[in-house]
Amino acid sequence: MQNKYVKKMLVLVMLGVLLITSCKANYSANLDNTTTNKDKEVKQEKKDIIEPKKVVNIKKISEDKKYTFSYSSENRFVSLKIPENEWTNFINCRYNKIMPKQNNKMGMTISTKWCKFLYQNIKDDYDFIVYVVNEEERPKKLFMNGCYQAVKNDIKGIGTMVTRTPFFDYTKHYSKDANRLQGLIFLTHNDVIYNGPILHEILHRWGNYLIDCDYGVHWGNANIYGRLGGQKSIQQVGNNSKVIGYRRYWQGGYAPLELYLMGLIPKEEVPNITIAQYYSNRIISQTEWNRVDGQDIVVKGKIKTKTYTIQDIIDGKASNKEQALNIGDRVPNYKDSQKKFNMLFVAIDHDDINENQKKSINNQIKLLSQNENYDDGIYNFFEACLGKAELSTEIHIKE
Question: What is the pTM of this model?
Fold first, then answer.
């Protein structure tokens, strides 16, 4: 009997130990689950808190103390502060001369110094650098609202640029670190970044260097009606001729021939081109720069015209002798051509840029570089290209 009692007691003790162990395990598991859930809640709360982005400000001064480079992560542009005497010379167009060792090409000679300092601070990621003169109105001596300065051409079939050399690469004149740079753009006041000549100036990367239409590197007497000018058509009215919708460059998207030269559409999508012939004077005179784009104008006498197919143009039948040095089908073609372009905006001034100017410049760059349609009656780059090309204005600073 005593042995049976002892055995029963041992069994009860063992069951008690097992029960206590089980309870401890359950309590520990529940405690772990509770802790884990609380940790998850804390982590989620941390995720829900949007921490403000840290503002990065960089300021660099050139070795000769002449230039100051400024960058802020709050802006879509960098700034270059230059000496006042250099500023005065620039706005009086005294740097618009023949570029040294660039085959007698005209340009802003001071740009090589600016770029060399600029490339000490930025990465070689840009196809275009845009220098924006930080003035609300165009300085009187700067005769243009914008201009394009070619740096490189490696594209076949777009004609010959004003360098009179079909293919060239002057990137090392601007910096030992520059390889990607294709051209510089100068905007002569700070309110024409979006609604202004910039789409016109970008297009000078590819044209007009192919058609001889009596207006320099623009479409002039041709019915292309694009960002480089031209007109819609010419009608005879009695003894006079009426030019319908003559434009210089300001409004609208890129014309089919312009899109072809940019490498965005095949040649089959380009309609016939009609060019005014045997007309001794330009349809629009140099003295009428303030005329509203798109106006119909009447000129005396009958204007004879000649029509070319896109294949005629590719074969050089509308080109002059120099332009014909680079004719034939475009290489690379629209399938293989570049579709994404990087652009850096640089505001130049001899003084600091104020907050209102920063706000205006930032907003204009944002609108220009939106890679989507924006219904405000003004074309951004994406819209002008019919959505076939994109523009990035991100700033890439050297570390």
Answer: 0.84
